[in-house]
Design goal:
With 423 residues, this protein is α/β, with parallel strands linked by helices. 31% of the residues lie in helices and 22% in strands. The protein contains 13 helices and 13 strands. The chain has an eight-stranded mixed β-sheet, with helices on both faces. A hairpin with a 3-residue loop joins strand 3 and strand 4. Helix 3 packs across helix 8, helix 4 packs across helix 12 and helix 9 crosses helix 10. InterPro entries: Lys/N-term_MeTrsfase_sf, SAM-dependent_MTases_sf. This is S-adenosyl-L-methionine-dependent methyltransferase. GO terms for molecular function: methyltransferase activity.
């Protein structure tokens, strides 16, 4: 009964997904460029052993077909103008020559693909010690991996539906959106949020210093975000080039090299939204991050805003597929399995113990992932009618947020397809 009622709501909004066409290189249609395992045109640009269960951490570079070389000059002029605006009257350099664009993919153990980002590769020209050095700038609006797009879609849609003024205030910089990301990877989620939401203040926790190095040295993530063990920035002030590339975005991000449980237990911060993507080199989501009796999950509730706090967790679907079955290529997403159910139940029970709030999960198209969402906003639905109200609110807010951000993809394909309430 619940599923049939929900499906009727989904059909009414089915036309919203393809309402416009914006060039989107992160679309799965381009996946042959960045989802390759072995290619004669690929090269290793970072490789180092991890001491935190991730084996060999490597970054592989793949050629990127867009934008065309004809447009590189526009980017050079844009960077030069930005340098002039930030450092008026400066005669020392500021000239960057675009060498191209690349996909950079992070791997654990040489086989587990963790994340993919697109980077601008540029060469510093002029005089001085930095002349001739290569700089990388990750392209935050190009979200390549479907589960990353799913987490951002459901996260922003949900918190915007929970009496938090995301569209009127936070996106415009009139109000802070305090964000915690557990798991850095290539840094796609924190960089996107800080770049696109002017009020976002983003803290990221990554247990493995090698992953931190990989993202800042080889994946174009701003190095000024890195903190020292005392919690302060490792660099006292940003490089002038950081100002040109990021124009303040890097100053609203902090990247902590710490165990997530330790960080949560010692932190006094309260976050509006928390993103958790913390699989290790063995492709395991650590039990201590979802066990209902773990110190981490118990403390997480204290770090989450009591009125609208929202948590988004990336999980791997855990159902068995017959790989020889003829209909496997037609499977666009996988249903929820036992492990996903257990994690969802734990997060709902612990984070919503006061009674208000709701939880749901949605399978991610094209890959074997599921996005779990638990939010303290809104009253807990009691029946299918109330779930329909929540779903309609999510759909409406999703369209509003993606329009305001001028997203190159629709949030709705990640919010409504396979929407499953957690009662």
């Amino acid at each position: 009964m619940l599923r049939s009622n929900l499906k009727s709501s989904l059909r009414r909004f089915s036309t919203a997904i393809n309402r416009r066409h914006i060039e989107d290189e992160g679309d799965w249609l381009y996946s042959s460029e960045w989802w390759v395992s072995n290619s004669s045109s690929s090269r290793t640009v970072f490789r180092k052993n991890s001491r935190h269960g991730n084996g060999v951490v490597s970054v592989i570079s793949h050629p990127c077909s867009k934008p065309d070389r004809l447009y590189w000059g526009k980017t050079e002029k844009w960077l030069e103008q930005r340098h002039h605006d930030i450092f008026p009257g400066s005669k020392n350099g500021g000239k960057l020559r675009v060498c191209g664009y690349e996909w950079r993919t992070l791997h654990f153990n040489d086989f587990t693909r963790e994340s993919t980002v697109k980077v601008l590769v540029a060469l510093r020209e002029g005089e001085g010690d930095e002349a001739g050095s290569v700089c990388l700038m990750q392209q935050p609006r190009c979200l390549a991996v479907p589960y990353v797009r799913s987490m951002i879609s459901v996260g922003l849609t949900t918190i915007a539906s929970c009496n938090y003024e995301l569209t009127k205030n936070a996106i415009l910089g009139k109000q802070n959106l305090n964000v915690l990301c557990i798991g850095q990877g290539g840094g796609s989620i924190p960089l996107f949020l800080a770049s696109e939401i002017k009020g976002a203040v983003v803290h990221t926790v990554e247990i493995d210093p090698v992953v931190v190095s990989a993202s800042t040295q080889a994946m174009g993530f701003p190095a000024f975000t890195v903190t020292s063990p005392n919690g302060k920035r490792a660099r006292e002030k940003p490089d002038p080039l950081d100002e040109v590339l990021w124009k303040g975005t890097h100053e609203r991000m902090l990247l902590f090299s710490s165990d997530a449980e330790k960080f949560i237990l010692e932190s006094a911060n309260v976050y509006d939204i928390i993103f958790i993507d913390a699989y290790d080199g063995e492709d395991i989501f650590p039990r201590k991050l979802w066990d209902p009796n773990s110190p981490f999950l118990q403390a997480l509730g204290s770090r989450l805003h009591p009125d609208h706090g929202t948590v988004v967790v990336n999980l791997h679907a855990d159902v068995e597929l017959d790989l020889d079955a003829a209909d496997v290529p037609q499977v666009s997403f996988l249903p929820m399995g036992k492990h996903v159910s257990q994690v969802g139940e734990a997060y709902v029970d612990v984070l919503l113990e006061s009674g208000s709030g709701f939880g749901y999960n949605v399978p991610v198209p094209w890959v074997y992932n599921t996005s779990l969402v638990v939010s303290r906003g809104l009253d807990r639905p009691k029946d299918s009618v109330e779930w329909n109200v929540i779903l309609n609110t999510l759909i409406s807010k999703g369209v509003e947020v993606e329009k305001l951000l001028n997203m190159p993809f629709s949030f709705l394909q990640y919010v409504k397809t396979g929407f499953t309430p957690l009662d």
